[in-house]
Structure formats: C-alpha cells, structure tokens
Design a protein that fits this description.
four-stranded antiparallel β-sheet; single chain; about 15% strand; about 260 residues; four-stranded mixed β-sheet; alpha+beta
Length: about 260
C-alpha cells in the first residue's frame, strides 16, 4: 500500500490558478491530488515531465481515445516547485476490460508513432526502467532466489525478435478510464521505446497474473506479431521490476506468476 504524500502547497495551487481545495486520489504512488477540474502530482523526473507535457499538449484530438491535457502555470511553465498539473478527465479504471484497454492503446500508439526517441530514456534509473532493459537484454539483473525460479523458464524460451520500436505506453492496466458515451481516456503515461504490441502483451500478462482473466485472452491477441516473445518479455519485465523495487516475495506474488508462465513458454 502506498502512503499519501503531502498535499500541494498553496503556492503551487496559486501557480496553476487552482482555487479549489485539493483532495487525495487513490492509486499511483500516493502523491496525486484533485482540486476541482485539475489533477496535481509531484514531478519524479523533470526531463520526462517536460517532454510528455509538450507531446500531450500538441497531440490531436481522437475519436478513439481521450487524454489528460497538461496544464501550464499562469506564467507559462509546466512545472512549479516540483509539481505538475493536468486537466481532470471523467471515467473510472476497469481492469477487467483488458481488450478495451488494448484497443485504446493501439489507437494511442498509432497517433504517436511519428515521434522520435527522447534522450531522457537513457537516464532513467527507476525499477521499471531497469526491468524494461533486462527484458530486452540491454542490462543484467542478479535475481533473488524466488525471482530466479520464475525467470528461468522465461529466459530459456526468449529468442531474438526484429520488430520496429516506437514510443509506447508501458502500463495500460488501470491507466485507461472508462466513461459512458465517451472514448477511453489514457492517463499516467510512462513512455518506453519498444515495439507497439509489447504494450498489449504487458496488459494481457497483468490481466492473467493479477485480474483473474480467462486464458482465452492470450489467443484473442495472438494475431499480433511476435506475440509469444512479447509475452515472455512482459513477464520478465514485471518480475524483474518487482524484484528490484520490493524487499520480498510473498506467497501471493509467486502465486500470481507461477500459473501464467507455463502458458507463454
């Protein structure tokens, strides 16, 4: 469980022109607040925040997805005293709607497919970036014994693939919001430079491990290129990230991955 960070100070609210009192939101890393029609959260990596704000600010509207538009300060900046802000978008996450999450991701990735690779990706050092690099054989990892047992069959079955990378959303589950009569809204974008179908593989792997999805979900997206190898890498990514970020493996963690690994190896 994440702990709730301190609320944005009055100086930050004033900088973004916010007049409403901030209320904490669930999810994420415990630092997100809503004040009326504005969402505020602490900046973790300024280079990424500034890049993402410029991209989302200029992204065209789509009939297939919505986005949370970033909000400038009243002086025209994207960051103030370590905080960023964006427009509130209606909707609720529904992790049982994996197919709809994947479809929204496909539309979003088509819309951003022209963007070049941002340089800041080389400088991220968080557990998720580490797990991503290990999954794609760009870095090594010394696993704990439980992680080593999970990873062994996945690594043994991993083979080279030659799909073209592009910018993707690396964490669709729970970050796609659904509202009646509106396209899905994509929020909290962690960018990665990987083949676009890998985002679908992560969503499907998460659904199988954590959200009681029927294994038939695997076959519904099997038409995507290099699907088995993308699934392998999705599971390696999640296992290594957990191993890097957490101090222990509980029986529930192991039980989430153990039945899924044979389905993809």
């Amino acid at each position: 469980m994440t702990s709730q960070a301190d609320a944005p100070p009055d100086s930050v609210l004033a900088a973004f022109g916010v007049r409403d009192d901030p209320l904490p939101l669930d999810g994420g890393k415990g630092g997100t607040w809503r004040a009326g029609g504005v969402i505020l959260k602490p900046v973790e990596f300024p280079a990424e925040t500034l890049w993402r704000a410029e991209v989302l600010h200029g992204l065209a509207e789509s009939p297939d997805f919505r986005i949370a538009r970033p909000l400038r300060t009243i002086t025209g900046h994207w960051i103030h005293d370590g905080w960023e802000a964006g427009r509130f978008v209606e909707g609720e996450p529904d992790v049982t709607r994996t197919d709809d999450e994947v479809r929204a991701g496909i539309a979003f990735h088509a819309a951003i497919s022209h963007l070049p690779r941002p340089a800041f990706l080389d400088h991220r050092t968080d557990p998720w970036s580490h797990g991503d690099r290990v999954a794609w054989q760009e870095s090594s990892h010394q696993p704990s014994p439980p992680a080593a047992r999970l990873l062994a069959p996945l690594i043994a079955a991993r083979r080279p693939i030659t799909l073209t990378p592009q910018l993707i959303h690396g964490d669709l589950p729970g970050n796609v919001l659904f509202a009646p009569g509106q396209p899905p809204a994509i929020i909290d974008w962690p960018p990665y430079w990987r083949p676009a179908p890998w985002a679908a593989a992560i969503a499907v792997a998460d659904a199988l491990c954590w959200y009681d999805a029927d294994p038939v979900l695997l076959t519904r997206w099997a038409h995507l290129p290099e699907w088995p190898q993308l699934l392998l890498r999705a599971l390696i990514y999640r296992v290594v990230t957990h191993d890097q970020a957490c101090t222990s493996w509980t029986p529930d963690h192991l039980a989430a991955y153990e039945p899924v690994i044979p389905l993809v190896t």
